[in-house]
Amino acid sequence: MLTYVSIIRALGDENRLRILMALRQRPLCVCEITTLLGLAASTTSKHLFILRQARLIESIKNGRWVYYRLPAKPVDCVRDALALTIRELAGCPQILQDDATLPGISHNTNIHEFFKQKHIPVPADQPDGSEEEAAAQHGNQP
User: Fold this and answer.
1) C-beta atoms surrounding 106 within 10 Å
2) β-pairing verdict for 28-29 and 65-69
3) Among 10, 90, 102, 117, which is least packed by CB within 10 angstroms?
4) pLDDT for the residue 69
């Protein structure tokens, strides 16, 4: 019951819902989430803490950076809560605006390579900023 209560509490805030919906696109660091939400880093970190406590998100460390993502293997109640949240909010104007804004927010253009090494799926249609990617887009060899 404690897990269920923490999930319900975590879902009771618009900013936390926006974080969850953004994370369905790709893993994000605190600075990217802060930029998307327009909040102070400390406020964003508090929201992330609450989401982690509820097991709605998980973190992955890359050097000094911590990235957040939806859980790879969520327990049943977390999976169900995330599915309901995504289904109900996918068409909301704020979420659609966040979805349109998110591709322009990045702190590390080589992060996709790190995620690939960790076997974390990344959107195939988004360039990772690497020289090889740029060369491929322009028809040049690296």
Assistant:
1) 18
2) antiparallel
3) 117
4) 96
Nearest to 84 by CA among 122, 56, 53: 56
Determine the Cα–Cα distance for residues 16 and 48; give it in Å rounded to an integer.
8
Bridge partners for 67 per DSSP: 29, 60
Q: 142: buried, middle or exposed (CB in 10 Å: 19+, 13-18, 0-12)?
A: exposed
Question: How high is the pLDDT of residue 116?
Answer: 62
Nearest-angstrom CA–CA distance, 20 and 50: 12
Beta bridge partners of 28: 68
8 Å CB contact between 120 and 40: no
Edge-first strand order for the sheet with 28-29 is 28-29, 65-69, 58-62
- DSSP code of residue 104: G
User: Would you give the DSSP letter of residue 130?
Assistant: -
- Please measure the distance between the N-terminal and C-terminal CA atoms of the chain and give it in whole angstroms: 55
